[in-house]
Amino acid sequence: MKRTKTLNRARLLISCSDQPGIVASVSAFLHEKGANIVQSDQYSTDPEGGMFFMRVEFDLPAFTERFHEVEEEFSAIAAQFAMTWRLESERKTKRMAIFVSKEDHCLLELLWRWRSGELDVDIPLVISNHEDLRDIVESYGISFHYIPVTKETKQEAESDAKTLLYDYHIDFIVLARYMQILSPAFVQDFEHRIINIHHSFLPAFIGANPYKKAFERGVKLIGATAHYVTNDLDEGPIIEQEVLRVNHRYDTADLKIAGRNVEKIALARAVDWHINDKVLVHENKTIIFN
Amino acid sequence: MKRTKTLNRARLLISCSDQPGIVASVSAFLHEKGANIVQSDQYSTDPEGGMFFMRVEFDLPAFTERFHEVEEEFSAIAAQFAMTWRLESERKTKRMAIFVSKEDHCLLELLWRWRSGELDVDIPLVISNHEDLRDIVESYGISFHYIPVTKETKQEAESDAKTLLYDYHIDFIVLARYMQILSPAFVQDFEHRIINIHHSFLPAFIGANPYKKAFERGVKLIGATAHYVTNDLDEGPIIEQEVLRVNHRYDTADLKIAGRNVEKIALARAVDWHINDKVLVHENKTIIFN
Amino acid sequence: MKRTKTLNRARLLISCSDQPGIVASVSAFLHEKGANIVQSDQYSTDPEGGMFFMRVEFDLPAFTERFHEVEEEFSAIAAQFAMTWRLESERKTKRMAIFVSKEDHCLLELLWRWRSGELDVDIPLVISNHEDLRDIVESYGISFHYIPVTKETKQEAESDAKTLLYDYHIDFIVLARYMQILSPAFVQDFEHRIINIHHSFLPAFIGANPYKKAFERGVKLIGATAHYVTNDLDEGPIIEQEVLRVNHRYDTADLKIAGRNVEKIALARAVDWHINDKVLVHENKTIIFN
Amino acid sequence: MKRTKTLNRARLLISCSDQPGIVASVSAFLHEKGANIVQSDQYSTDPEGGMFFMRVEFDLPAFTERFHEVEEEFSAIAAQFAMTWRLESERKTKRMAIFVSKEDHCLLELLWRWRSGELDVDIPLVISNHEDLRDIVESYGISFHYIPVTKETKQEAESDAKTLLYDYHIDFIVLARYMQILSPAFVQDFEHRIINIHHSFLPAFIGANPYKKAFERGVKLIGATAHYVTNDLDEGPIIEQEVLRVNHRYDTADLKIAGRNVEKIALARAVDWHINDKVLVHENKTIIFN
Asked: Which key words are in the record (chains A, B, C, D) (predicted)?
């Protein structure tokens, strides 16, 4: 089942300092352009000195043809309020690259939801530091590029990856259990456009073998956190979190299986929201209009 | 812990046929009045011929004094778009009556959340068709009125209840396990202002003794649904639903206890959202901006 | 990640009228045989005149070779207590057939969990009344058999299916969105060995188009129920249930997607428990030792 | 609604090194005594060199009168297998002391569930280092003792508390948001008999103001962990965990309210299981037969 796409549907995303008149100006602009607002969400953090966030979904006759015109004209309003903003066309499908290592559960969940039409995205490219998942990826008709990474070749490997990302016109990256830390320079180039998934526990178990530690303390919930990658390792803005219930009968292997299943669920939701421009980032947190 | 109330904070709730210019007009109006929009949510069902829903929370200097002025001036815009609408002041605490029979779990949950400051509401009045809960209600300093109901006295009982509701200036009613069916005339008088809670199962178990039937089929989830009362019994617009996990070790009594606990949680959330004007009703469904 | 199988591990499942001495007899028998009990669960419904259920997992030296000896010797104890019982070897992987129509989400979830090693089962056979899913099934190296069903050919179709099920030595069947009702005779042949999945709502929406009805009433939870098939349509013993949270922004198509996702999760858990002999059935309910 | 207590119902809890013959010996003993096993759960961690855990619930004619006889006779079997064990009578209601500071949400949840009959426990005593909650506690007919704690008086305060605990024949203690760290000596005296509740996040936010940090990172789930107190602060065996979903609209105060609500739920379940002897502790984890 595919979600039907609407012709001429646009999404406008705005972040700026809160100040009187923003909504009125945006609405007046859209009204004047002949737009029909389908869905609009706003959120502001604090009436005094706070931040303002807005997501408007609207239909505009001949939007595809008029995209640049609308974008250009809106930039005047944006400048007036010192907005961080972007205009997106629902028709333009985003292009996603997936980075993997050897574990396939997150990769396969994304591929399945993509093929079933649940994730409205193009996946032209998978990059891996191992050859293990080549066959499965290629069976979906997706290019698989093997880029090994060692301490010595890391810079070169990232450079190769970047070339591929640009060649394939990639909009954003999903680290689907990619067991390498990206360099600050790489992260910077794709700010708020790299989604990572990692296991999460209540409370956290620091250091190696977290599942073993979780087992030893008899945790009752196993969780996962999907977040944007920043240079503060695993500390970027959270997009989605989920938990699964476990019990003392789960051994370390069972806990890992539960971990895989909860990672799949949290990551797939985060990717879906990113694709549909439902996520705004401010400082280290997300505003999600879903 | 009390949530802090903001002086001069207003909420405007709007439903109407979707049409161009609504948001622009509302925004321009609020901008002109000097309002600072704190939070705004919109939702429209369908770009062509659909419905439009909006909730705007804003701060307006001297709003309390200017309430009627704002209300009157906005009515011109409302008329233009044939809106169903209302303006609310956060400062004006809603007045809630609770109807109970003999079971106390929902009543006590509401009383506790009220006294703890979690529910920002006044509770001047509890009405019951039994005397059982008088002491506990009065210990909270709340008036308890015993109105017995029989088939013969039902009309008179409802008439007595209405008198009390008007005398106490009640804004809305919560049926906290009130085991009487209200007459269509009574329901009509408090349209979308009576909240009910009842158990819910997946799938439903029709008829008497649902917990026994649920036990006999070994259900794994016990649920509850909070909804506005309409004259279609237990079929009114859903506000909130919740489930709790159970297993084969739960006997019928245990399932009932689980049912009580999930009813408390779902009802308390529904009441909180109603109090904060986060619920809009259209036909038989709710739009909840939370 | 595969769960490691233990050599010589056995599972004994017992249901009978509750009576003194059952556990003592079973334990003494296993002790005498040299078994090491790994996990044992018992449950009895009611001390007076109730039912007793037991699942024992144990290791026994050379169990594979001694399976029939153990089975035969235990049958004397079983007779003494009029037990319904079975002995299973963990080493003997169960053989599962999947019945599908056109929808692939449940099928693919099972195939993925099977290939990833999460589901310890063999899947030699998929039967469908449509050709649509042939390619995907065959790409997993699984036989796909197309058996069309019409009112006239239903009996013949079931007969053909049975032949295949016997030829392939199938232990149990999963109806992964198979949109045909099986005949009482067929169901009887596979009593408590056919697992079905269907959507579930709180409360239930009877009749056609349940998602449309759920949308119209603004449900907040979408659920699914996995159960054994009996001749009382969709009313058999519940194995697992799950829900996902939705909101007013979900249109009917979105609710269906949520429904698919929750069906996958509930079905996969039910199949896992069935495979591992964790489910006992008594009358119309399950006892699940998980 | 009270859960009905059964006359002559006993619970036997056993932990020991796994070895052949344990279950057979226990079963034979109970059979010989004329016991009727109502529910029995066993769990063993590892067939080779692992631990064995068992909880048996059984009815025994005239158990109350024969308690010491049964206990004494069983001690021979216990010695044979070097068991850690205890025998409990359902009829003997446990006596719980609650320690609080100023926050009342956990206290009130326990009091409500106690008065409603959900928690089958006696609560003769509340101890607090503040006077704030005296009135509410005394309104339930429960003794309230104010024991202030400073760095200088800590030892004396604990000594006073212990005297009260012994005078009131307290079986176990619940720290219902008691903001003091107990001394190792005190904890030792009540090993596995002190239950604490604290907030938990995914991932953890270390240090002061965790809710502020959770807000700043935009967490989507707020959790709580109920655990037995050990001298490794907040690192004792986990009994229960729960989470509630939140979103970016929750400010720090809203997150704290969510935290309170999830703490109430997790703590009440943990206390219920402790009361019903459903929790066994081994090293730093719990085995929960529920």
From this structure: Hydrolase, One-carbon metabolism, Purine biosynthesis
